[in-house]
Design a protein that fits this description.
The complex is a heterodimer of chains A (about 290) and B (about 375). In chain A, about 75% of the residues lie in helices and about 0% in strands. Chain A starts with a helix and ends with a helix. Chain A is mostly helical. Chain B has 2 domains: about 220 residues, Rossmann fold (3-Layer(aba) Sandwich), CATH 3.40.50.300; about 110 residues, Nucleic acid-binding proteins (OB fold (Dihydrolipoamide Acetyltransferase, E2P), Beta Barrel). Chain B is about 25% helix and about 30% strand. The chains are: A mainly alpha (about 290), B alpha+beta (about 375). The structure holds adenosine-5'-triphosphate and magnesium ion. Adenosine-5'-triphosphate (ATP) binds next to strand 2 and helix 1 of chain B. Chain A: Its main location: membrane. Chain A: This is Sn-glycerol 3-phosphate transport system permease protein. Chain A: Pfam families: BPD_transp_1.
């Protein structure tokens, strides 16, 4: 009897592992192994033909922290994240509320808002390169023609940020639209009868009900603000004078322009740690705040 | 118009298409009455209720509440409350916040809010559940929260759209009585939508029977049962439904004096029928089968011309299938209708059929 139970249990465990194994193999090959390799590499010096890589402990990290460019890039990215994330979320929410209302040509409005999200970032950046061209693009038509948006340190980072917001907002809007459509119309009518106007209804009912979506979008926006920097390659290449350089772009430079693999690895490990921390914090928040349904 | 008319609807129409929506609805409701809108699915009950609430805009007609024309006012200015079929509770707010939502929005002071909340909680028996979210309540408790939210503001008019349809049969029965008692105690005027005739008959002061977007009959439950104004009303209310039979099945002696047999149909309530031996009653029939229900038995019968009807006989009867019987009933229990229009055929000098006013308008009667 107990023998059969044991055998049954072993069979179940075997099935479990079999079902798990494809994902496990893929993750190990393409995620866990490279992560460990990167961590390992970040602890060694760069090898040359004569000198093989030597274990240097945390020297690569110390080097990074001592580099003023590191602080510049981190500062840039913080500013970029601090502006792009709230701005794109607010814009997405606004557009979703608008596109969800009873307006003429609703489908058209939705598609129009979503278009930037469908464009590849490179294409979007090229579009904006045209917008920003001094004395030529549509901005020039607005009387701002003389400003070299991408060419001066004061405006370059902002110009890059605007492109990110424009690109991301449409994508996040789709999540908000989906969430808005799950709110039963009865709630609006009940609120209406209770005397709530449109604004009160939005603030007291809609926004709280969108909270889980907001947290989800926030996680994605934060990760994207580190991950999605393709526009730099087209628009500024991080310049002028590192004014618009972001972490990932710098990492790419360290690895493939300066061929300083150990420092790039150290930087990667740092970013990975920060992102993990962000994800952990957010998911505990989501678990705590979003379970009222 | 009566002095105590509280809600007065005149020629109200809202057409979604040629065949749907409501048209030309006129109704006067007295203060403190419990009015039930009854009718089959899709007949326009909810639409009528939503028009009164202001959630739909009428194409034509007017609505007056307490002597004030509210046709053009938004829902919040009509001083009414509503209980939705889905309850429409705010899922992110707890019970207390749900109940006082409207008070808060209207800027009622905190102390006053607290007092009214406690009152509403006590009346609906929700004490101790203030801090629960709707997701953690049973269906019956949610229903009571919706009810509490509707009464907390003290609006004189309360609209309810099938508020009991999500409850199980037993709970429905007790909540029905609770709602009725609460309505009487608070003196609210209630417009209540249902498609369940038992609910309508047991709760209503006045039943408004609707069909295809129009009002078919407005009457007290007793009236609508005893004197259905149309064949539709006769067939819709009562269980088993009253069957319509052609008048020429009856002998000349049983026909009403004035009408020609070809123009009339008649119906008899199941409980008025008694079974006799062949030849002893008014109408020959054949037994098709029977359903024993304990206190009574439904006997399914077939009469000449393949018309069917059901008799409701107290206790148990032992008639075999296919047996021939004769049906008898008191003469005054025959309901006559005009074949073409479906209207009740008024017997010229019948004591039980006094002349009646416009069928769509009911004066609040004494004693309700
Ligand atoms: N917003 C709308 N747009 C188009 N048609 C509608 C709309 N609302 C209701 N209708 C139609 O109007 C008619 C009446 O609908 P209503 O909801 O009032 O029926 P009801 O009597 O409440 O039925 P039920 O008992 O099933 O709830 C139906 O034929 C319905 O299809
Ligand atoms: Mg309905």
């Amino acid at each position: 009897m107990t023998h059969m139970v044991k055998q049954e249990r072993r069979r179940a465990a075997l099935y479990g592992w079999m079902l798990l194994s494809p994902a496990l193999v893929l993750f190990t090959t393409f995620v866990f192994a490279p992560t460990v390799a990167t961590l390992w590499q970040s602890l060694f010096s760069a090898g040359t033909r004569r000198r093989p890589p030597a274990f240097v402990g945390l020297d690569n990290y110390a080097d990074l922290i001592a580099d003023p460019v590191f602080w510049r890039v981190v500062g840039n990215n913080l500013l970029y994240t601090g502006i792009a994330v709230p701005a794109s979320i607010a814009l997405a929410l606004g557009m979703a509320l608008w596109a969800n209302a009873r307006i003429p040509a609703r489908a058209f409005v939705r598609v129009a808002y979503f278009t930037p999200a469908m464009l590849p970032m490179i294409a979007a950046a090229n579009l904006w390169l045209f917008f920003y061209t001094p004395g030529f693009g549509p901005l020039a038509a607005l009387g701002l023609g003389s400003v070299n948006w991408l060419g001066q340190p004061e405006t370059a980072l902002w110009a890059v940020t605007v492109v990110a917001v424009w690109k991301e907002a449409g994508f996040f809007m789709v999540f908000y639209l989906a969430a808005l459509q799950t709110i039963p119309p009865d709630l609006r009518e009940a609120a209406q009868i209770e005397g709530a106007g449109r604004w009160t209804y939005t603030r007291r009912v809609v926004l709280p009900l969108l909270m889980p979506t907001t947290l989800f979008v926030l996680v994605n926006a934060l990760i994207n603000s580190v991950r999605l920097i393709d526009q730099l390659f087209i628009l500024t290449k991080g310049g002028p004078d590192n004014a618009s350089k972001l972490i990932l772009y710098w990492m790419w430079e360290l690895a493939f322009s300066y061929f300083d693999a150990p420092r790039a690895a150290a930087m990667t490990v740092l970013v990975l740690m920060v992102l993990c921390l962000v994800a952990v914090v957010q998911f505990t928040l989501i678990d705590r705040r979003a379970h009222y349904r | 118009m009566n002095a105590s008319t509280f809600l007065n609807i005149q020629g109200l129409s809202r057409r979604f298409s040629a065949r749907s929506g409501v048209g030309e609805v006129s109704l006067a409701v007295g203060r403190g009455q419990f009015v039930v809108l009854l009718g089959p699915s899709g007949c326009g009950k909810s639409t009528t209720l939503r028009l009164i609430a202001g959630l739909e805009t009428p194409d034509a007609g007017s609505i007056e509440i307490d002597g004030r024309d509210v046709t053009a006012l938004p829902p919040s200015d009509r001083s009414l409350s509503m209980v939705f079929q889905s309850y429409a509770l705010f899922p992110h707010l707890d019970v207390a916040e749900n109940i006082v939502f409207g008070l808060k929005v209207r800027g009622v002071a905190r102390a006053e809010r607290r007092r009214r909340l406690d009152e509403a909680l006590a009346v609906t028996g929700l004490e101790g559940l203030e801090d629960r979210k709707p997701a953690k309540l049973s269906g019956g408790q949610r229903q009571r929260v919706a009810l509490a939210r509707a009464i907390v503001a003290g609006h004189p008019l309360c609209l309810m759209d099938e508020p009991l349809s999500n409850l199980d049969a037993q709970l429905r029965h007790s909540v029905r009585q609770d709602i009725r008692a609460l309505q009487k105690r608070l003196g609210m005027t209630v417009i209540y939508v249902t498609h369940d005739q038992t609910e309508a008959m047991s709760m209503a002061d006045v039943v408004v029977l609707m069909r295809d977007g129009r009002i078919e009959q407005v009457a007290s439950p007793a009236d609508i049962y005893e004197r259905p104004a149309t064949t539709f009303a006769a067939g819709f209310i009562g269980s088993p439904p009253m069957a319509m039979l052609p008048a020429d099945l009856l002998g000349a002696a049983d026909l009403p004096g004035a009408g020609a047999a070809a123009d009339l149909v008649f119906g008899i309530r199941g409980e008025d029928i008694s079974l006799r031996r062949p030849g002893e009653g008014r109408l020959a029939a054949r037994v098709l089968g029977q359903e024993f229900l304990g206190a009574e038995t439904f006997v399914n019968l077939e009469v000449a011309g393949a018309a069917r009807l059901t008799a409701r006989v107290p206790g148990r009867v032992d008639t075999g299938q296919g047996e021939h019987v004769s049906l008898d009933w008191p003469r005054e229990a025959t309901h006559w209708f005009e074949r073409a229009s479906g209207r009740r055929f008024a017997l010229p000098s019948s004591p039980i059929d006094p002349p009646r006013g416009s069928p769509a308008v009911v004066r609040p009667a004494k004693g309700y």
